[in-house]
Amino acid sequence: MAEFVKGNLLNSSLEEIFEKAEEQLIIISPYIKLHSRFIDVLKSKKNQHRLKITVVFGKNENNITKSLGEEDFNFLKDFPNIEIKYEPRLHAKFYANDFSALLSSMNLYDFSQNNNIEFGILTKANLLNELTSSLFGDSFDRNAFNYFDQVIANCETLYKKRPVYEGKMLGLTKKYTHSEIEINQIEKRFEVSPTNITSNPSKKVNDNIFGYCIRSGERIPFNPKKPFSKKAFESWDNYKDENYKEKHCHFSGEKSNGETSYAKPILKKNWRKAKNKIK
Questions:
Q1: What angle (nearest 5°) sits at the alpha carbon of residue 159, between those of residues 59 and 178?
Q2: Which DSSP state fits 44?
Q3: Which residue, 19, 114, 156, 213, has fewest beta-carbon neighbours within 10 Å?
C-alpha cells in the first residue's frame, strides 16, 4: 500500500531505505549532495560487498560536478559494489532498497532536505524478486520499478566497481577477496574542486600576485608556467594535453570560451598587461 509522506517523515523514510538496504540500494536523483545523516548511515555499509548500490544522476552536461560533486563521488566510489550512471535528461527522483521504494519530488541534496517543501510516495515492495514475486505489491509498485529499471539500463555508466570472489569447497561456497573497478569514465569528465594551493611555484613569480586557475577559475599565485590549481593540475596531468581547451584566463579569471590552454593560459588581449606581472 502506498503512503504519502512529507516533512520529517519524508526524511526519515529515505534514511530508513538507506539503513535497511541489504542486497540492493537504488538512488536516482538529478542532484546529489549527501546530507551528513545519510553519510553516517552509509558509512556503516562500506564493508557490505553483497549490497549492490546503483546511483543515477543527471543535468549539467557541460559540468557534471554541479550535479555530483567530487567529495560525494570520492565517498561513493569507496563502496565495494557500486555503479554510478549519468542521464542528462533526468528529472525524476526514486529511492529503493530490497523492501521499499520512495517516489519523491526531493533531490538527494542537503539543501532540499533542510529547506524545501517536498513530498514522497512510499511503497512496500520486494524489489529483489522483481515482477515474479506475489509479494511485490500492486500495479503501482510494478510499474514504478519497471520504469526505473529501464531508466537505469539506458543510462551511461561512468563508474562501476564489482566484488571479486574465490571459490571454496569445490565451488559450493565463495569468499570475497577484493573489488575491481570495471569502468571509470567519470574522473576524466570531472571538473575537479578548486584549491588555493599550487605546488612548486616558480622563483620568478611573486606569490602575492594572484592569477586564476584556467580550469576552475580559482585564485592561485600568478605563474603562466603553472596555470592550474594543485588538483586541477593532477587532473590535467593524467593526459598532458597542452592544447586542451580550458575555461578561464590565467591573468584575468574571465571565461575564455576555450581560447586558453596549458600552452596558452592567457587570453591574447590580456598578454601585454600580463607581462607587467612577471618579474
A1: 155
A2: T
A3: 114
Please tell me whether residue 99 adopts helix, strand or coil conformation: coil
Higher-confidence position of 106 and 66: 106
Residue 186 to residue 190: CA distance in whole angstroms: 6
Q: Residue 34 corresponds to which cell in the numbers above?
A: 549527501
Question: HSE of 35 in the Cβ direction (CA atoms, 13 Å)?
Answer: 18
Distance CA 50, CA 173 (A): 14
Query: Which H helix or E strand runs over 9?
Result: helix 7-20
| SS3 at position 240 | coil
Q: By C-alpha distance, which of 164, 127, 163 is closest to 146?
A: 127
Domains and CATH numbers, the chain: 3-189 (3.30.870.10), 210-275 (no CATH)
Residue pLDDT, tens place only, 213-265: 999 888 888 889 999 998 889 888 888 888 999 999 999 889 999 999 999 99
DSSP 8-state secondary structure symbol assigned to residue 68: B
pTM over 0.70: no
